[in-house]
Amino acid sequence: MPGRLFPVGGPVSEKDIVDREDFIVSVQTRLTDGQSIMLAGPRRIGKTSIAYEVLRRLKEQRYYTASVDFFRLSDIREFAVSLINACLENRTGIRKTLDVLKDRARTIAGMAKLTVKFQDLEFDLNFLQDNPDENLLLDYALELTETLASHDNKNMVVLFDEFQDASRVANQSEIYKKMRSHFQNHQNVSYMFLGSKEGVMNTLFGNHKEAFYRYATVLPIPSIPEDSWLGYITQKFAGQHIKADDRVVREILRQTGGHPQDTMLVCSEIYYAILEAGEQTVTPEYVQLGHSRALLTLTQVYNEILDEIGQRTRAREVLKRLATGKTIYIQSDNSNETKRALDYLATKAIIEKGGRGSYKFIEPMFQEYILRED
Prior knowledge:
Layout: H1 21-32, E1 37-40, H2 47-60, E2 64-69, H3 76-92, H4 97-104, H5 108-115, H6 134-151, E3 156-161, H7 166-170, H8 175-183, E4 189-195, H9 198-206, E5 217-218, H10 226-238, H11 246-256, H12 260-277, H13 284-297, H14 299-309, H15 315-324, H16 335-347, E6 351-353, E7 359-361, H17 364-373
Parallel strand pairs: 1-4, 1-5, 2-3, 3-4
Antiparallel strand pairs: 6-7
């Protein structure tokens, strides 16, 4: 459909994952060999799209799969229920099995017919109460992955998205110890851990004091080569009988820096502008219009980031210096505070360190937004 020419706002299907094939195969191979994997990087760079494609391919190989997004959860019970539902879906084909069980508990026949699927899993019907013991529920959920895979003679892969938020959901740092105590004994299950706060994720899996120290293989997500973007964007426009030559496509990529979601968004806005005008050629003028419209769309996202970092000493000031190309360290400032601000911005995946102490924005469009706001 034209409205989905350049997908934005969430994970994309396999046909819109640009030049990640080798990486996807590498992740899939490691998981099928029993390794667990950690992928970290800023939001909107395609981690979840990659992970979902890996799960899709594993399903085709008749693996059991499950996915839980901590960003959407608020407490332990929601986490446990979400994981149980994701596991049981492999048997029932029902997305929210516990809700269905609760509804059918009112009819003896309906309940009996469905619960036969869970007899070997020692499912506790008390879990269907409105206020079950959340710790018992969580222990059951964390062990269910291995129990289900073992009973059904299957291998299983479980995805945890925004894994660094697990401590927020559980309101305790001990949640990682509890999870590790279960997972380390699992023989039939591999895990994928995704996180947008790269610094936190690297600490969770790289600090010897943390429960998940060296539990998973850390794989850096490769950037998408410009030529791969060039071919993808040109072909997508051509499929709608719109001409986009190399020059204008490279200008799009210069403005977005090849950031996956920003690039898709700008291309999408260009496409709609061309549709509205009834034209069939991407010109530099349409590139600028698409870029401006995309920045407007991202205004709320960027303002929320600026509000958050504004609560950190000197962080917003240092970010403006970086955006305008000014000297980062100045005599009137405390150099330690400036360094802490830079480290904070890097931890938040807003900037990344280059050579010789230089820094650059991960999203060039965010830098452009700051410049326009001044």
